[in-house]
Amino acid sequence: MLLLKLSAQDLLTLNSRRRMVPHLAARWRHFRGSDASVSERGAWAESLVDLAKDLVAADRGTVEMIVECAATIDESGTPGGPRLIDVVLVGQHPDTRSVSVQLVELKRWSTVTRVESTVAGMVHVPGMGEKKHPALQLAEYYDAFTGDRGPLSGLPFECGGFAYLHNASDASVAPLVALDAPTGPCAQVYTRDGRDRLLSDLRKNFAEDGGASAAEILLHGMQLRNTPLLDAMIRSRGEDTVFTLRGRQREVADGIRSTAAQVLGDPSAPALIPDERRVVFLVTGGAGTGKSAIGLQIKADLESEGRTVKYASGSRAFNGAMQEHVGYGDREFKESFTYFSSFVTTPDPPLDVLVCDEAHRLRDRSTSRFWRPEQQGTRPQVDELIDASRLTVFFLDRSQSVRPNEVGSVELIEDAAERNDAELVRYQLSEQFRCGGSDGYIRWVRAALGVSDEEATEWIPDGLMHVEIADSPEELERVIRSEALAGASARMVAGYCWPWTKPQGKEKRLEADVCIGDWHRPWNADSESFCEDDAPPSKIWSVHANGLGQIGCVYTAQGLEWDWCGVIMGEDMVRRGDRWVFRRGKERKDPESGVKRVGTPGSFDPKVRASSVDDEDFGRLVRHAYHVLMTRATRATVLYSTDEETRAYLKKLVGDVHIHGLRPTWENLPPEARAPHLPRPARGGRNRSRTRRAASQQGQRPLF
Q: Rounded to an integer, what is the distance from CA 285 to the centroid of its chain?
């Protein structure tokens, strides 16, 4: 377990917003089942912050601080619960570039005296009584981290530890450094008198960069995972989010924030001569490289400065999850999420920042069959988005375009920036953080589907991501349901290979369109409101408990993720010999019910199967759709193909999966990893973004 993982500089930012201690207290209550003591909260507010400031002062602000953590999940079984170390500092060693770890005990002691007639391992702290020498505590942690079962076992590493008594002087705690005091790699003691020595030693132990990658290595050894995106957003209600941006992600976010400060100026002190420049950021990267995390983080950061920010997307599923699940009952928060087509009329004045997620889903024009002629867009949609704000941020993934009318591309945005006299800033993301951080799984999926030019090879289980092939839809559903009922997030999705019937009758009955032999299930509801048996509307199908019994498709899954995802491949993409064959389906009408059924198996996506889409584009769009569906899981993907030959091919690719100990079923997960996914907030919550913006404009920060 751990309560928080942030770089020193990010921890100070969180603390400046008065959110660090409440966050730590909430995490403590979640894991420990009780409230943190006043003393514990005081240590977080004082000692933890002082240590972070020292790291920044030593030019080591990128060193990661893991707060209140156990060495391994095995610690959960120790009597009295896991042994928690105050802070683990993680970075790269400046000489060897290996993982460098410093274990830290934070003590608020101001005076220490000897205990007469006892060993030097015990000292007396006024008001607290006899206490164990910090070096002895740290020695236990050192053994836990570096032992055979510790997270550093088998790795090249540098590890030591120290006690930090920022309230004390060297003279007031002299017994801690006496000649007969404990010795060893964790016996260093620093007081306020020794701050210069501490800063010097921090520079000797840590390089200026590499903290994020070193922390990922350590967290993998500790078997810990990051908070899922929606859970992090719910916990923060879109403010001061707890995403830990790593490496290139942080560089992108810092670049955008820095440019915003230069171009937009200080919102509380407008410039006499406004800067009229427009800037377009183009951030490209594959699925799971952190595009949404960056976008949501900079949205929160810039809003906290008093900027006007909106978050636009081409995905109804993503927007629905944010508006109806994260922002339930918070009108201002919900209205900050919108669609690409919402800017036919340019805002006056323009927004400060417009974040455009999934820009590969841009359309040529903003149009709708429900709009009056005068409401239809007449200019390129990309121009409308650039006109809508001073800074426009586009996040784009070439391999996630799934409809023929989606025109978003690097070239489109480059041309639009030039056409609108906007400065263009490019960034490329490559590090993989989705699918359990398993870059190998992402590469395997792309190769298997033919999205990349790599040769498809047998899947090698890596302990980060799990994949298996089901022999029937019943088996797939059984796995997904069992995980969902145990506490994991899980959904079933499928290629668009069956007709999609709208809810029937006044009761809004869902037709079981997805038919595979005797197994019949409905698509998620094509509705804006709840249907029969409390089936949720499509916009919240992905997060509502009653969505488990319906099947989603690429349009309701894109941009979202679950612990487990069951993917049904239909007849639109089948394996024949050494190649993939793509098929367009044809429908027939059931003579009794009048409901459309499958006549000829294949794709039933009305936009994709259209005769106006040539065969090459048709195949590309179908591949992309399955690429999206197969990269929605953070722990495990269960695959099933309705085609026997394709199923055999997938089984060959997956190989003999040794699932014992690797299959991340809920019961196999360590207790600390079984964090329940958060329900949507109740109505009536205070409007925090408005409160925070008002405080910012007054030169203050809200207390909570």
A: 15
The bridge status of strand 99-106 relative to strand 157-165 is parallel
Burial class (CB in 10 A: 0-12, 13-18, 19+), 546: middle
**CA end-to-end span of the chain, whole Å?**
25
As a 3-state breakdown, the chain gives helix, strand, coil percent values, each rounded to 5, of 35, 20, 40
Q: 250: part of which helix (H) or strand (E)?
A: helix 248-264
The span from the CA of 89 to the CA of 76, in Å, is 21
**Overall size of the chain counted in residues:** 704
Nearest to 100 by CA among 10, 187, 160, 184: 160
166-206 pLDDT per residue, tens: 888 988 988 888 777 888 888 899 999 989 999 999 999 99
Q: Helices H, strands E: what count in the chain? A: 20, 26
- Rounded distance between C-alpha atoms, residue 525 and residue 532, angstroms: 10
Residue 525, phi then psi, degrees to nearest 5 = -65, 125
Task: Give φ, ψ of 584 to 5 degrees.
Answer: -100, 130
> Using 50, 70 and 90 to split pLDDT, how confident is the model at 89?
very high
**Taking a C-beta distance cutoff of 8 angstroms, is the pair 564, 636 a contact?**
yes
Record the tokens describing residue 586, joined without a space: 């044809």
Contact of 30 with 675, CB cutoff 8 Å? yes
Report the percent of the chain where pLDDT is more than 90.
43
The residue to which tokens 């993917």 are assigned? 567
Q: Report the alpha-carbon distance of residue 8 to residue 682 in Å, rounded.
A: 33
pTM (2 d.p.): 0.61
Q: Which residue in 459, 407, 425, 464 sits closest to 288, CA to CA?
A: 464
Secondary structure of residue 375 in the 3-state scheme? helix
Q: Please, are residues 240 and 297 in contact by the beta-carbon 8 Å criterion? A: no
**Amino acid at position 267, single letter:** P
